Amino acid sequence: MFLKIVYNLGGSFSQRRKGYAKDAKKGMPRLKIAVIAGDGVGPEVIGGAKRVLERVGERHAIEFGFEDLDWGAEYYFRHGRMMPPSAVEILGACDAILLGAVGHPDIPDHVTLNGLLLPIRRGFDLYANVRPAVLYAGVESPLAGRKAGDIDLVVVRENTEGEYAPVGGFLYHQQPQEVAIQTAVFTRRGIERVVRFAFELAQRRNKKKRVTSITKSNAQAFGMVLWDRVFASVAEQFPDIETETLLVDAAAMNFVRRPESFDVVVASNLFGDILSDLSAMVTGSIGLAPSANLDPTRRHPSMFEPVHGSAPDIAGKGIANPLAAILSAGLMLEHLGQSGAAGAVERAVTAVLAEGQVRTPDLGGDSSTRQVSEAVAGRIG
Ligand code: NAD
Ligand code: IPM
Ligand code: MN
């Protein structure tokens, strides 16, 4: 009952989808990508990501079929909803979803986000939100004394329940005695699967082989206590991985004090959200932080998007950093089994950053979104 989609999306999220390999022509994979550019800087940075993907397609013999979807705030102004009733079927028929950002100053955020982003995450059961943060060569951390490679962590954020569960309501709405109830929902199954994902990721990364679990179980004595218990029991099954548990307030401090100590960090929906803006910033800019919303079971298309939002303060100026979106497209390629192409994207971004000639203002440069995108596209090997 709790996990029922309360925002009307239409359609059913439960249908199984065909594997993309079936769509592949002999020798040349064809990947059908749903593109929701969205609002604000979303279309600007997604333009850059598509430009890079086109180049990747030429160089790596991948055929991209982009399904451009005009959903978001402008769609809402015309239709009174963020996406059409057939959204589920349209997205469900694609191999992956590439999203820019959602959010418009003239529409309440809870309407836009609960009408598009959050129901897609829940509806397609994209339970692992993977948010890497790397300090690249040529990028200055706001923290003193950190050099390239010192910070290399991944926040794995629970993405379907926790504090974001749409459970609650208003009582005496808009009256003086108004009451709002917002319930966090933690399930053993939901915690177990994301914690296990984090341990397996630490094994695959084969770096510090450390998983840090973040809660606030000193104050929140039900959901967070369950999280701690489940974390401890899953940890027993991974004796090769070192563990650490931190309270979220201390974790925030330690993301600044000793970010180099973290490898994989697993946290609830809200804590993972907050900490991944922090991890983005200590590695130079939110404009560099990519993310993957994964359904590790592959029953549904996974969704790839920058960590940042629609940035209305810089929208339309052509100066948004496209690298978070481009790196998200790289994560998408990795998920779709195109590791060579994914590596090429990361290497191209790394090279452009290291050269330091072409960069947007958030990184101290004066280049445009388009110039940075072209520079990366030009470096795709
Ligand atoms: P934001 O991430 O949009 O912006 C925060 C700050 O970072 C701003 O100063 C912005 O200019 C800067 N910034 C963000 N992306 C950048 C980029 N690519 N290059 C350079 N600078 C960049 O967060 P916010 O201001 O809290 O939210 C704005 C809107 O976006 C709100 O409507 C919010 O709900 C929405 N939002 C959407 C998503 C999403 O769709 N995934 C994520 C976060 C926020
Ligand atoms: C993010 C965003 C969203 C979230 C908002 C816009 C609902 O901040 O993807 O980090 O909190 O999940
Ligand atoms: Mn966020």
Structure in words:
The protein is built from 12 helices and 12 strands. It has 381 residues and is an alpha/beta fold. The strands form 2 sheets. It has a 10-stranded mixed beta sheet, with helices on both faces. Residues 1-19 have low confidence and may be disordered. The longest helix has 19 residues, at 42-60. Nicotinamide-adenine-dinucleotide is lined by residues 41, 45, 101-103, 109, 113, 117, 286-287, 305, 308-314, 320-321, 324, 360, 362. The site of nicotinamide-adenine-dinucleotide has 23 residues, from helix 4.
Question: What are the key terms here?
Answer:
381 residues, alpha/beta, ten-stranded mixed β-sheet, two-stranded antiparallel ribbon, 12 helices, globular, disordered N terminus, binds nicotinamide-adenine-dinucleotide, binds 3-isopropylmalic acid, binds manganese (II) ion
- Overall, the morphology is globular
Approximately what portion of the residues adopt beta-strand conformation? Answer: 15-25%
* Total count of strands: 12
Rg from alpha-carbon coordinates: 20 Å
Helix/strand order: EHEHHEHHEEEEHEHEHEHEEHHH
> What are the segments in which pLDDT stays under 50 over at least 5 consecutive residues?
1-19
- Chain-averaged pLDDT: 94
Give the terminus-to-terminus CA distance: 49 Å
What summary fits the major beta sheet?
A: 10 strands, mixed
Question: Going across the major beta sheet, what is the strand order?
Answer: 2-1-3-12-11-4-5-10-8-9
Question: Structural class given helices, strands, pairing?
Answer: alpha/beta
Helical content class: 25-40%
The bound ligands are: nicotinamide-adenine-dinucleotide, 3-isopropylmalic acid, manganese (II) ion
Count of helical segments? 12
